[in-house]
């Protein structure tokens, strides 16, 4: 195992703090607005944590925190995918540490890099022009959609070992966005509110929404395969 530098640990702590702060600020702003409009604060909290952006920023904060807690950097011979990591570390002497081992596994951290990259790119291409935030909302917006995605992808490029990533892994990484899409449909059917306009069947109709989701999952897959390709080219 290779001991990590102070700069790497500081980067991880900063990323974790930034992700948590951005999410907390976003939730506070939503709850404040709901309270001012005499709307349900509980519903505001549920709405806030139902956004893919918020969930994925929390994911970045979690893996960054786990990485900061881990004293050493995973070597090139470590197991590459998160699923294998769970079985590799779950033994009688290591049960207490398996969450950190899973979260800091190269496969897990690469999957998170793909997820947060999609957050940034989707917002840039499809969502930035649909509203004009100001004040603290602008700060939260830029942190969630710009700062965290860019900084985490840079962290992944610089610090995460990638040599053992496999071409089959991005297929498994689709589970999270696929489950989220299913959740958003159920949430929308119950509340009448769909979290993103491009997956709103009430406005676009189900055929167009299904096409949008298929294209989005394909984008996740292609970006995941590109991440594996980068890892293999770099041969870290």
List the helices and strands and how they pair.
Blueprint lengths: L1 E2 L2 H31 L4 H8 L3 H18 L2 E2 L8 H8 L8 H6 L2 H22 L8 H24 L9 H5 L1 H17 L9 H4 L1 H29 L2
Antiparallel strand pairs: 1-2
Helix pairs in contact: 1-2, 1-3, 1-7, 3-6, 3-7, 6-7, 6-11
- By DSSP, the count of extended strands is 2
The gyration radius over C-alpha positions equals 19 Å
* Unreliable segments of 5+ consecutive residues: 73-93
Roughly what percent helix?
A: over 70%
Main β sheet profile: 2 strands, antiparallel
Strand order of the largest sheet: 1-2
Order of helices and strands: EHHHEHHHHHHHH
Percentage of β-strand residues: under 5%
Broad shape: globular
Q: Helix/strand/pairing class, anyone?
A: mainly alpha
Distance between the termini: 14 Å
- How many domains is the backbone divided into? 1
Number of helical stretches of at least 4 residues: 11
Q: What would the average pLDDT be, to the nearest integer?
A: 87
Brief summary:
The protein has 236 residues and is an all-alpha fold. It is 73% helix and 2% strand.
Give a verbal description of the structure:
- The protein has one domain (2-77, 99-234).
- The chain is built from eleven helices and two strands, in the order βαααβαααααααα.
- Strands 1-2 form a two-stranded antiparallel sheet.
- α1 (6-36) runs antiparallel to α3 (52-69), α1 packs antiparallel against α7 and α3 runs antiparallel to α6 (106-127).
- By secondary structure, it is an all-alpha fold.
- The protein is 73% helix and 2% strand.
């Amino acid at each position: 195992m290779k001991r990590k530098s102070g700069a790497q640990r500081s980067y991880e702590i900063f990323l974790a703090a930034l992700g948590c702060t951005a999410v907390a600020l976003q939730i506070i702003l939503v709850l404040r607005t709901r309270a001012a409009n005499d709307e349900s604060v509980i519903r505001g909290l549920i709405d806030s944590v139902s956004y893919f952006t918020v969930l994925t920023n929390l994911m970045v904060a979690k893996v960054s925190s786990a990485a900061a807690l881990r004293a050493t950097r995973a070597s090139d011979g470590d197991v590459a995918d998160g699923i294998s990591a769970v079985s590799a570390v779950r033994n009688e002497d290591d049960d207490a540490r398996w969450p950190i081992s899973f979260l800091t596994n190269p496969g897990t951290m690469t999957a998170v890099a793909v997820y947060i990259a999609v957050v940034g790119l989707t917002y840039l291409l499809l969502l930035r022009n649909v509203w004009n935030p100001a004040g603290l909302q602008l700060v939260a917006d830029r942190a969630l959609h710009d700062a965290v995605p860019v900084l985490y992808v840079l962290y992944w490029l610089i610090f995460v070992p990638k040599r053992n990533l496999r071409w089959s892994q991005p297929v498994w990484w689709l589970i999270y966005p696929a489950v989220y899409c299913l959740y958003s449909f159920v949430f929308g059917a119950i509340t009448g509110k769909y979290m993103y306009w491009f997956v709103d069947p009430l406005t676009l109709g189900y055929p167009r929404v299904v096409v949008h989701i298929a294209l989005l999952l394909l984008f996740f897959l292609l970006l995941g395969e590109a991440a594996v390709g980068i890892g293999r080219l770099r041969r870290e």
